Amino acid sequence: xxxxxxxxxxxxxxxxxxxxxxxxxxxxxxxxxxxxxxxxxxxxxxxxxxxxxxxxxxxxxxxxxxxxxxxxxxxxxxxxxxxxxxxxxxxxxxxxxxxxxxxxxxxxxxxxxxxxxxxxxxxxxxxxxxxxxxxxxxxxxxxxxxxxxxxxxxxxxxxxxxxxxxxxxxxxxxxxxxxxxxxxxxxxxxxxxxxxx
Length: 197
Prior knowledge:
Elements: H1 3-12, E1 16-22, E2 28-33, H2 42-56, E3 63-66, H3 72-82, E4 86-89, E5 102-103, E6 111-119, H4 123-134, E7 138-147, H5 152-158, E8 162-168, H6 169-178, H7 184-196
Parallel strand pairs: 3-4, 3-6, 6-7, 7-8
Antiparallel strand pairs: 1-2, 4-5
Helix pairs in contact: 1-2, 1-6, 2-3
């Protein structure tokens, strides 16, 4: 699984789209990344899991954890691919039954690696880390499929964690331009716009 293969797959399934999109903040972006689509494309999801493995194989950890909802299909695919247990925090602790904040089986003191799909500010990763540390897990590393290069890596490192990304948004744009999927003008426009956001 090369970065080029991954970037082209994500573009071909519509997980990376160049157009005009309104963001949650209300700002307009010329690119939209929707990695939730991976769950609908099993071969692409397998490719993504293999891409994560290239980084994860170099790290020391006992279990995988991921942000709830968006990261769960990816986390499950990676756990199956590497045969490593997965746990994940709930958005809110259960008000019934066991009252768990984190689902799955773990032991206090185990090391969890946090994986997620894409980072912008790093907030969702840091919230996931906080939740799993609260139940006694240790975290040293966070692994992302795509770094949008908008401060997330710096924020995660500033909080004391190692940050790893399979590919950056700038790298994806370069690959798409070289493969004639987008123009040089589109690549420059996206990069200029992201700096302004």
